[in-house]
DUF6366 family protein (Sporosarcina jeotgali), 63 residues
Amino acid sequence: MGRDNETPEERRERLRQKELKHPASSIHGSVLSDLVGGLGWKGTGLMILLLIIGFIIYATFFR
């Protein structure tokens, strides 16, 4: 069955499958959520801790 003869349900399913192949699409979230999801809770906590320490060092020496 070609694209000219497909039903609306088939077209929706085809578009949904196409969107699932691209994980950076809007339905899956942003780059930050991908980063946090890939790091796990320990990696995310370490990243937040490093950002806080970096801010404290910046505030101490550059003000």
